[in-house]
Amino acid sequence: MAHLVDEAFPVEGILPKRETGATGFLAKYPEYDGRGVIIAILDTGVDPGAPGLQVTSDGRPKVVDLVDVTGSGDVDTSTVVEVKDGEIVGLTSRTLKVPASWSNPSGKFHIGLKAAFDLYPKGLMDRIKKERREHLWDPTHRVALADATRKLEEYEAKNSNSTSTLEERLLKEELQTQVELLTSLDKKYSDCGPVYDCVVFHDGDTWRACVDTSERGDLESCKLLADFFLEQQFSRLSDADMMNYSVNIHNDGNVLEIVTNAGSHGTHVACISAGNFPEQPERNGVAPGAQIIGIKIGDTRLGSMETGSALVRAMIKVIERKCDLINYSYGEAAHWPNSGRVCDILSEVVNKHGVIFVSSAGNNGPALSTVGTPGGTTSAVIGVGAYVTPEMMAAEYSLREKLPSMHYTWSSRGPGPDGALGVCISAPGGAIASVPNWTLRGSQLMNGTSMSSPNACGGIALVLSGLKAQSVGYTPFSVRRGLENSAQVNDTMDRFALGHGILQVEKAFDHISQHAQCQERNIAFNVTCTGNKRGIYIREPRHLEKAKDTAVSVEPVFQEHTGQEEKIAFSAQYSLVCDKTWVKCPSHFELMNVTRSFSVHVDPRGLPEGVHYTEVCAYDVQCISKGPVFRVPVTVVVPITVKDEETLSVKFDKMAFTPGHIRRHFIAVPKQASYAVVQVKSDDCEKSCRVLIHALQLLPQSQYKSCEFEKFVTISDRGDTTQAFPVIANVTLELCMAKWWANLGETSLSYSITFYSAQLSQGQPLMQASQGIVRFDMISPLKTEDISPSVTFKHAVQPIRPVSHKIQALSDTRDMLPEGRQIYALELTYNCHVTKAEEVMVDCSLLSNLLYESEFESQLWMMFDSNKQLLTSGDAYPHQYTAKLEKGDYTIVMQVRHEKRDALERLRDVGLLLYRKLPTSLTLDLYSSWASALSAAKKMAATLTLEKGAVTPMFVTPLPDDKVPKGAGAGWFLSGTLSLAKEDPAKKASSVTFTYVLSENPQRSNSSKNGAKGKKDEKVKDKEKTKDEEYSEAVRDLKISWISKLPVESAVYDEVKQEHADHIPLLLARLQVLDTDKTRQKCLPEILTLTQQVVSKVDVNELLVYFGIKSDQRSDAATIKSEMDKQRGWLVEALVKQGCAQAEVLNTEVLETPASGESVTCSRPEITMNDLDNTLIELQKFADLTDAKVLPFSVKYSMARKHYARAAKFLLKQGEEKANKAADATLAEAYNKLGWHHCARYQENWLPVKYPPSYRLF
């Protein structure tokens, strides 16, 4: 049977251009393809080696500049070295061979180091880790493990009898340890990746940099690069990763900026807007003739999150490079629109410097008022919504059916919280386009307003290209009006998703050209309604009870450098028009260079349930055809009330849904309601349905996400789902039910929403531990409900204050705004200690959840361990960043930026909150009466019935002292929830935050009664001493405490020794100073002598007898125990130092190196391996070899025995207590001795990563 094959692939749907008129425009004006236009792509970075990003349509370089403004690619190259014999030593300790072809007149080289994984996005890092393990670790490790196992089996076969000698026992343990260690290393394998030396120098003309990607010092094989803008040169880190990189050099060679990608997103965006494929023109981007500047604003340290600092630096670069357009496919939810430090600077670039800023509107729909910042909330920015066409459905998504054009379900909708429309225009929101080479793909499908924005940006580039070619004047203001007034309106599309319409390139070009000489070309009209809002937005029931008059102010804002004569001459007469009868406005309005106002009357009474939108449009009476000059958007939401007062339910039966169909229900949440439950049931008996349930309420000065519920569910035929979420009483709730746009077929759903009111009358509960029993009243004002109250804590929160602060002026090339506006940085340093492994989160609550709207540029913080290794970073959104920490000391450095020093001065004492996740959740006991709480009698019943309107008290008792997290102190608090509902999902929805403030730690006593009596006896004994004796001992102890702080040649020791020669603490203090002295080798004989003295003064047999007693019942047992523990500590310390000295004597012949540098062989103490074995035997009587204080001896003993696996095991244990570079280097040496060279390489690679020379740069 013959098959019909359609040979014509719908290529137009791969990267759609026809719908916006871009295809027709290029057919008519082939040379207006973006030539002469520079687009700044602010994103995750652009790969200059990706397909389509090499040259423009007229042969110019496609990518003009590449910069990383985040700081994540920065390398500290402030260390300066000079070449010696054609070589320098890098910070990795590798020897770097300097090519003879390099010209460096000064002879000075700046060096630094960079781990490749600091440059990789997560996806690439995961791939390289897997490949490196498979190629560099697994094959060799399998052989080593098999060999070690074979040796152990052979030994056990030859020595089947029980081993008797120490040497035989140790040898068997060594072989066993080899197997155990190799097995453990394989399980704990964690690759640090390649680590590169970086070299920077000035060749007499410009700064140049070389990254040693060979990892062996072969700089000749590595590409020498200058700033990308100067030569458009880039290189590749390795053939394995395929990561292309470029460089920029700052601060006179002290900072090297390595530019890579934080993700594939930016390259995809760049190719949509301006990709050029000479051999495959059907794959071209929208404006193939445009040039690109790739600005990486996605910080790799934060998983590609943007920061305020990066955005401000990006704006500086945009101005410097004289960009025409910005594409910004990023954004976040903001608490208030159109304001904040970052938004102000973005707006300044548009209003003062004439750059057109295009941004994604957001992917947080379908509920209303979900537009993101800056795209949907900033007046200077053109926000773009995303829609999908039938051709895209066929080519990109391979749908079985072609559906009508529609907006994607997730495309964010307006209006903004202040009444602005939110979305400006719409464009196709999906494309198959190029992605970076490191993905190992040529192209990829991505969708989102992230894709509609570059599509629109490319279309605008075509318009600008034509305007420039025809010498037509324009400004961002005239271009925006041209786009809005020429956009294609589709009546079947939601206006809040569509904006003013779908971009039409040719119509926009014609509109701007025809009206280029209009007097408002250089003017932005700042339209402000009462309350500093940009529109009229009536949403809450209390505002619907009567008509409302709103004062509308219109201020003409002229572009920078507009002539004074033009400002004086400006005078315009407008006709004000609105197409809805429920809105009344004046018929005419005259405007000159001054702010003027008029009144708009809105009468929402009588409007049906739902959302209503209109605009007051101002037309120039001299030229009506150019469309509205400015607009006043008006939105009215009319909610329904809950009429069923018994169940508090609203039902919607048998609602039909087609693909992409959205049903919005606005409901006035009943007074005193606290949470809602939504139940959805499919009426379809044949197919499943994919549904997005989206509920949202708006609160003043609060981002929409704070009162949002969103759940994507698949409901099977005749299936159902139940969801719950908290609600705010008396605030309109939008319940949005949307069938997924690509879910084919018609579906019928029945659903309902039911409100509940169980809650605390006090709101969010706060309890002080010192309050004792605290009463909370539970109430259900609306109906009787069954509850099951519980209080659970998951975090202990420690407030920490900065230990230091400094304010400094930043780089004058990267961090100076126009007109010499220097940006300053406040760096705050915090210290914290972790007593055991735990997960932590850092929160600067003063600045948290504020980015674009913040008064400051950034709040980036980095956490380092005691060796300055960067462990984690975070920014404005703390809940996105957690870190698992081991026991140890940590430093947090936080940077906040602003151009005003006094603004930063106010933050110099700002605290942080350190959220420590509890190993197990803690709960508080709840009681139904004060008496039962006081006596800890019967607890509250598991299930209670709250009668409608009745108050039910709940008494909460403090957390028992033994449950308080160890180390917690005054000022700490526990953070958790109080839940009321009985079952999930309502249990979570009914939860409120519960804060429990801890008091001072209780003074616990570990002494028994006998112990207390013993201490009393000791005090009586002490009182028998005369004051002179007490004074003499105090002076002695003070001098002893200073011995370890003074040089080894100090006379204090000899002075005290004359009177207290047998005092053990004196001998130990001397041992301490000898042990840590730089010339320790020559001190070994004295160390051995002193340790022998200490050992001889401790009665070992008495200690053994005492510690052999199972239970001491003597009245002074505590005193005896204290004394015996002290003597055991002295003995162990002396034996450890003795054993270490003995091991070193066995391992070296050279004991003294005089100042002349000539080695002198001293008489060697008579030490044998038998002596070292005896020390081991004695030490093991009183301590384990894995004890922290014994580990130094355990390591040296094992190395002396050539038991390198045991040495490695002890070194690893030592590293768990506190990482040490020398110990890790010794560990690599041990691996080499064992022949495990792959383990040694692994360990050596980690050294520069774990022990960097300085803190990471911001």
Automatic annotation (TrEMBL):
<feature type="domain" description="Tripeptidyl-peptidase II first Ig-like">
    <location>
        <begin position="523"/>
        <end position="637"/>
    </location>
</feature>
<dbReference type="InterPro" id="IPR023828">
    <property type="entry name" value="Peptidase_S8_Ser-AS"/>
</dbReference>
<dbReference type="InterPro" id="IPR046939">
    <property type="entry name" value="TPPII_C_sf"/>
</dbReference>
<feature type="compositionally biased region" description="Basic and acidic residues">
    <location>
        <begin position="1014"/>
        <end position="1028"/>
    </location>
</feature>
<keyword id="KW-0720">Serine protease</keyword>
<protein>
    <recommendedName>
        <fullName>Tripeptidyl-peptidase 2</fullName>
        <ecNumber>3.4.14.10</ecNumber>
    </recommendedName>
</protein>
<dbReference type="GO" id="GO:0004252">
    <property type="term" value="F:serine-type endopeptidase activity"/>
</dbReference>
<dbReference type="InterPro" id="IPR000209">
    <property type="entry name" value="Peptidase_S8/S53_dom"/>
</dbReference>
<dbReference type="InterPro" id="IPR022229">
    <property type="entry name" value="TPPII_Ig-like-2"/>
</dbReference>
<dbReference type="InterPro" id="IPR048384">
    <property type="entry name" value="TPPII_GBD"/>
</dbReference>
<dbReference type="Pfam" id="PF12580">
    <property type="entry name" value="TPPII"/>
</dbReference>
<comment type="similarity">
    <text>Belongs to the peptidase S8 family.</text>
</comment>
<feature type="domain" description="Tripeptidyl peptidase II C-terminal">
    <location>
        <begin position="1019"/>
        <end position="1082"/>
    </location>
</feature>
<dbReference type="GO" id="GO:0004177">
    <property type="term" value="F:aminopeptidase activity"/>
</dbReference>
<feature type="region of interest" description="Disordered">
    <location>
        <begin position="1001"/>
        <end position="1028"/>
    </location>
</feature>
<dbReference type="InterPro" id="IPR048383">
    <property type="entry name" value="TPPII_Ig-like-1"/>
</dbReference>
<feature type="domain" description="Tripeptidyl peptidase II second Ig-like">
    <location>
        <begin position="780"/>
        <end position="968"/>
    </location>
</feature>
<dbReference type="InterPro" id="IPR046940">
    <property type="entry name" value="TPPII_Ig-like_sf"/>
</dbReference>
<feature type="domain" description="Tripeptidyl-peptidase II galactose-binding">
    <location>
        <begin position="657"/>
        <end position="745"/>
    </location>
</feature>
<dbReference type="Pfam" id="PF21223">
    <property type="entry name" value="TPPII_Ig-like-1"/>
</dbReference>
<dbReference type="Pfam" id="PF12583">
    <property type="entry name" value="TPPII_C"/>
</dbReference>
<dbReference type="InterPro" id="IPR036852">
    <property type="entry name" value="Peptidase_S8/S53_dom_sf"/>
</dbReference>
<feature type="active site" description="Charge relay system">
    <location>
        <position position="43"/>
    </location>
</feature>
<dbReference type="GO" id="GO:0005829">
    <property type="term" value="C:cytosol"/>
</dbReference>
<dbReference type="GO" id="GO:0008240">
    <property type="term" value="F:tripeptidyl-peptidase activity"/>
</dbReference>
<dbReference type="Pfam" id="PF00082">
    <property type="entry name" value="Peptidase_S8"/>
</dbReference>
<keyword id="KW-0645">Protease</keyword>
<feature type="domain" description="Peptidase S8/S53">
    <location>
        <begin position="34"/>
        <end position="501"/>
    </location>
</feature>
<keyword id="KW-0031">Aminopeptidase</keyword>
<dbReference type="InterPro" id="IPR015500">
    <property type="entry name" value="Peptidase_S8_subtilisin-rel"/>
</dbReference>
<keyword id="KW-0378">Hydrolase</keyword>
<dbReference type="InterPro" id="IPR022232">
    <property type="entry name" value="TPPII_C_art"/>
</dbReference>
<dbReference type="InterPro" id="IPR050131">
    <property type="entry name" value="Peptidase_S8_subtilisin-like"/>
</dbReference>
<dbReference type="InterPro" id="IPR034051">
    <property type="entry name" value="TPP_II_domain"/>
</dbReference>
<feature type="active site" description="Charge relay system">
    <location>
        <position position="265"/>
    </location>
</feature>
<dbReference type="GO" id="GO:0006508">
    <property type="term" value="P:proteolysis"/>
</dbReference>
<feature type="active site" description="Charge relay system">
    <location>
        <position position="450"/>
    </location>
</feature>
<dbReference type="Pfam" id="PF21316">
    <property type="entry name" value="TPPII_GBD"/>
</dbReference>
